């Protein structure tokens, strides 16, 4: 197998990353605290000394997760504006039109989500 020299640093970085993950997982398994099976007081959940109310396995509404995903989606959109803001003179009119297209696609997605009722908490 003959790899170009440009791929060697990428392979080294991938090996180091994979090695870190493996060492972390094995270290947590072998060096971490061991929990005894059973229903002891130590295995019960608690929050700041306050008695537990209800079950921790109560399902959340799908609206919560949908809102979280939408927040991340539109938050990531803002991240893509930074490179454009730094280099907007170099991009010229072609870059401006690309950003307008990018924003237009997200506006279409936003209005779709809005019309579908994903942002209405009362429903």
Automatic annotation (TrEMBL):
Listed EC numbers: 7.1.1.-
Topology of this chain in the membrane: Multi-pass membrane protein
Catalyzed reactions: a quinone + NADH + 5 H(+)(in) = a quinol + NAD(+) + 4 H(+)(out)
Presence of keyword Transferase: no
Keywords: Cell membrane, Membrane, NAD, Quinone, Translocase, Transmembrane, Transmembrane helix, Transport
A Pfam family hit: Oxidored_q4
EC top class, as a word: translocase
Residue ranges crossing the lipid bilayer per the database entry: 6-32, 64-84, 96-114
Location within or outside the cell: Cell membrane; Membrane
Description of how the protein assembles with itself and partners: NDH-1 is composed of 14 different subunits. Subunits NuoA, H, J, K, L, M, N constitute the membrane sector of the complex.
Function according to Swiss-Prot or TrEMBL: NDH-1 shuttles electrons from NADH, via FMN and iron-sulfur (Fe-S) centers, to quinones in the respiratory chain. The immediate electron acceptor for the enzyme in this species is believed to be a menaquinone. Couples the redox reaction to proton translocation (for every two electrons transferred, four hydrogen ions are translocated across the cytoplasmic membrane), and thus conserves the redox energy in a proton gradient.
Family: Belongs to the complex I subunit 3 family.
The protein's name in its UniProt record: NADH-quinone oxidoreductase subunit A
Species of provenance: Epilithonimonas pallida
């Amino acid at each position: 197998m003959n790899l170009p020299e440009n791929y060697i640093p990428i392979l080294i970085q991938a090996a180091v990353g994979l090695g870190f993950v493996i060492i972390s997982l094995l270290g947590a398994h072998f060096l971490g605290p061991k929990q005894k099976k059973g229903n002891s007081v130590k295995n019960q959940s608690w929050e700041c000394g306050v008695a537990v109310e209800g079950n921790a396995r109560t399902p959340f509404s799908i609206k919560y997760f949908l809102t979280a995903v939408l927040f991340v989606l539109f938050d990531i959109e803002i991240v893509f504006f930074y490179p454009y803001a730094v280099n907007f003179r170099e991009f010229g009119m072609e870059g401006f039109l690309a950003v307008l297209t990018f924003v237009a696609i997200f506006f279409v997605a936003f209005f779709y989500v809005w019309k579908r009722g994903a942002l209405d908490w009362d429903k």
